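Shipment paperwork, digital attachment
Item: protein structure file
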Amino acid sequence: MKKLTPKDYLKEAYPGSSICAKTVINWIKKGKLKGEQTPTGRWLVVIDEEQSTKINHMLKMLETSGV
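Attachment content:
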């Protein structure tokens, strides 16, 4: 299991997109994305290592296809 800040999650999952960190926090609050809030109020995206590997594989496929 890996925990990332919303900003780091965007860099990994959606590189170069215009999605902001607040959108990721809203996804967590709506249950579209797994996450948690720290005692200090910060939000973290919780990613299963298996899911992270799939995302990286899909990104590599997109990059090689020229999309």
